[in-house]
Amino acid sequence: xxxxxxxxxxxxxxxxxxxxxxxxxxxxxxxxxxxxxxxxxxxxxxxxxxxxxxxxxxxxxxxxxxxxxxxxxxxxxxxxxxxxxxxxxxxxxxxxxxxxxxxxxxxxxxxxxxxxxxxxxxxxxxxxxxxxxxxxxxxxxxxxxxxxxxxxxxxxxxxxxxxxxxxxxxxxxxxxxxxxxxxxxxxxxxxxxxxxxxxxxxxxxxxxxxxxxxxxxxxxxxxxxxxxxxxxxxxxxxxxxxxxxxxxxxxxxxxxxxxxxxxxxxxxxxxxxxxxxxxxxxxxxxxxxxxxxxxxxxxxxxxxxxxxxxxxxxxxxxxxxxxxxxxxxxxxxxxxxxxxxxxxxxxxxxxxxxxxxxxxxxxxxxxxxxxxxxxxxxxxxxxxxxxxxxxxxxxxxxxxxxxxxxxxxxxxxxxxxxxxxxxxxxxxxxxxxxxxxxxxxxxxxxxxxxxxxxxxxxxxxxxxxxx
Length: 467
Description:
Elements: H1 3-13, E1 25-30, E2 37-48, E3 54-55, E4 73-79, E5 85-90, E6 95-98, E7 105-114, H2 115-121, E8 130-132, E9 135-139, H3 140-143, E10 146-147, E11 155-160, E12 167-169, E13 181-186, H4 189-194, E14 196-199, E15 203-208, E16 215-221, H5 227-245, E17 253-260, E18 272-275, E19 278-284, H6 299-306, H7 333-348, H8 354-363, H9 367-370, H10 374-384, H11 389-413, H12 420-434, H13 443-451, H14 456-463
Parallel strand pairs: 1-11, 16-17, 17-19
Antiparallel strand pairs: 1-2, 2-7, 3-6, 3-10, 4-5, 4-7, 5-6, 8-9, 9-14, 11-13, 12-14, 15-16, 18-19
């Protein structure tokens, strides 16, 4: 049977169980094995067609780039309660509207996302969902759009796929997976978009034991791997971080790995992405982890899990609430990345030579980067952090060196009683109490009060251009 027809039949077979969850929004993700596309359905309380916009994300927290996910979306339709359908029209931005039909109300939208086209088009593997043999790996924000105005509502998500395919999600990780269909109750759209959804017989799950929270490794590999060794490295990283911070903010955590045969020489495999309760890493099969190595480099794992503290739970203006239709201008990328680079490598992994690495990056920076203040460079990095990675490297290096200077200052001024760790804990506590993003002009004051040291002069020193 034609795959598109199969998807349509699945949609027609979806009943209005949504009506039993009045006020919430119901999403359904349908995938037919060997298809290039997933079908997304969004059910909601009836709305005037003239007011409805289907928003497709262009960015996500921590990506620091614009990605045209709407270019992989097609066959957008809205449906009335009587199942009459209206074609969607692409808007001026990353959204779809529907024909102006007087007094018409709609209660659902369907659209398809071409996963294969996405992976082929996007050269950075970290930005794309994947479709490979016995596997579909989905980044929530790359396929799930939302109806403007409904993004704060609770969500019921149903996933349907091949009857013998296991389903795994970082929203509710578990070793024993349901096959063919599963459902999730989700707080709001931001949580839905932040999740990863791994479908297929090619996914291997390993639950790490003797941990403070449920801790999982989920792997899709096109070569031999040792998932227990990956788990050992994850546990070692997790334990070092929890020892440093002194508390665990995540209810559970999943490390998602992909080891993939490259599509082309131009495709990049190596960047990782942090999420609220998970991280994703896409690597070339040449980087497959196969053997025990007591000296294995765990820096990337430590770094990306550490982001669950900063900035995912303490952040500056622009990071949250997030502007899904664009890549928001964020003034504090140097803090998000640089502070975590310093904590991860210099402090937790005790790599004191990393300071030389940071200084070399600054010394070799092009003039257009040196001439920018820390704030200006962060604004530039909001959309180009990895596009020209000299921007990204200089942002995290300046932030890390600021952290190092603050560490020395705090230690000296308090007679060794406090350190940069107390500054970080102060930021986390401030966000917990105030429940909002900190403004740029508040950061130095928050740190100063946390450690009882005036850090304003050191702060001002690092705000200036390097040249």
